[in-house]
Amino acid sequence: MNSIPERDSLVQYPCDFPIKVIGLHHPDFLITMVALAQNFDPAFDGSNVELRPSKGDKYLGITLNFRATSRAQLDGLYLALTGHPMVKIAL
Predict the structure, then answer these.
(1) Is 2 within the bounds of a domain?
(2) Please, what are the averages of pLDDT over each run of 10 residues along the chain (91 residues)?
(3) Closest C-alpha to 63, from 27, 39, 28, 33
(4) Which residues, 6+ apart, have CB-to-CB distance to 52 below 8 Å?
(5) Are 68 and 11 a contacting pair, CB within 8 Å?
(6) What pLDDT score was predicted for residue 24?
(7) First and final CA of the chain: distance in angstroms?
(8) CATH number of the domain that 48 lies in?
(9) Using CA atoms, how far apart are residues 68 and 41, in angstroms rounded to an integer?
(10) Are the beta carbons of 35 and 41 closer than 8 angstroms?
(11) I want to staple 44 with a disulfide (CB 3.0 to 4.6 A). Which of 8, 22, 32, 37 is the partner?
(12) 3-state SS string for 38-77
């Protein structure tokens, strides 16, 4: 993976960064995604997420309002999310 040096990034750290995650509407999906975010920021507040079930309730969209402190932290979280078997899409 080609990484952009933090000094060349358009993002100024620290910053609030919304991450949208979509997966099957499973009872453990929200809990699992919050736990993943907390691995990268122990202070992540799991009550500060937005939920959007799909029209047929098969999928659940979650917006994690994440406080990013570095490019490496944000990249690590994205890799963890996209590599998780419950995640269909992470934006």
Answers:
(1) no
(2) 60 94 97 97 93 97 96 96 98 95
(3) 33
(4) 60, 61, 62, 63
(5) yes
(6) 97
(7) 17
(8) 3.30.70.260
(9) 8
(10) no
(11) 37
(12) HHHCCCCCCCCEEEEECCCCCEEEEEEEEEECCHHHHHHH
Q: Which residues contact 68 (CB under 8 A, 6 or more apart)?
A: 11, 13, 14, 15, 16, 17, 74
With beta carbons less than 8 A apart as the criterion, state whether 77 and 19 touch. yes
Total domains in the chain come to 1
**What pLDDT is recorded for position 11?**
87
Is 5 inside any structural domain? no
What's residue 31's pLDDT?
97
Tell me whether residue 53 is in a domain. yes
Domain residues for the domain of 72 are 11-90
Closest CA to 40 of 72, 16, 62: 72
Quote the pLDDT of residue 5.
57
- What's the pLDDT at 3? 54
